[in-house]
Amino acid sequence: MTNITGSSRRVALLGIPIDMGASQRGTLMGPAALRTAGIKPVLENLGIDVLDHGDISIAQIVPATDPIPAKANNYRDIQAWVRALSPRAYDLTKSGAIPIFLGGDHSLSMGSINGVARYWHERGRELFVLWLDAHADYNTPLTTMTANMHGMSAAFACGEPGLEGLLGAEPRASISPAHLDLFGIHSIDPLEKKLVQDRRIAVADMRAIDEFGVSVLIHRVIERVRARNGVLHVSFDLDVLDPGIAPGVGTTVPGGATYREAHLVMELLYDSGLVRSVDIVELNPFLDERGRTARVAVELIASLFGQQITDRQTPSNALEPDRI
Description:
Blueprint: E1 10-16, H1 30-36, H2 39-44, E2 49-55, H3 75-94, E3 98-103, H4 109-122, E4 127-132, H5 153-157, E5 180-185, H6 190-198, E6 202-205, H7 206-212, H8 214-227, E7 231-237, H9 259-272, E8 275-281, H10 292-304
Parallel strand pairs: 1-2, 1-3, 3-8, 4-5, 4-7, 5-6, 7-8
Helix pairs in contact: 1-10, 3-4, 7-8, 8-9, 9-10
């Protein structure tokens, strides 16, 4: 396998048009908006071989009969999406391409991360997840205030109880809470906060970003992944951005990351050579302003895959071949 900064890079796009996990409908249009904003040609212009697999379907998923947890809205619908997505995420990762999962609300990460983690665990590699989000999404059916399942996706990825039947026969491949980094957080529920603290999950909230800067904090994440010879999944919720630059989300929170901070995050991740899979979630074109948020998302993904304003030299350690 080549490094993300290698010369023969491949990317696989997969749309997940789901909006059942959020209270505000409309994210099912997110994959189409990202395509309209040019995600495929922008990546191709960077010399990347991009294959668009279209949108995933749940038409062939057999309805489940396990008990429905209390306080888990639209559980059956989300269960079908997760059961469809997890094996597709596994297969796309196995193909050697870098999958980019086009959302859709953040509940899709329950399937994408599970499939990606299963592949890397089979290869003896540890998967780390960088959760770029205004919210921690670390609720469970026991802690949630809203019962919306997009707010439970990080907790599910880390193996928290309460949604055991979600995957059915699909193997569950949880990551360790020590391998989750919550970055850009500026809204968290009381019981959720306690759970995050109890699990000793790394949190870089907006105060920490203001105090230490993006560069220092992202380098900490990178070094932690590199020290374990791990690989990195980036779960990018557009509400991590300040609403002034990304209004097209249903859960805007004032005081988010600036345009330049977000680009720096992506540029540093590109330099690291560690990213092997990506979610782009919570884009709601119904709430957007003439495609503004979709265009910002595509620009940031371009930075994640190497687009730079200047032709500065990429650090040599990012050019080393990947160690399998």
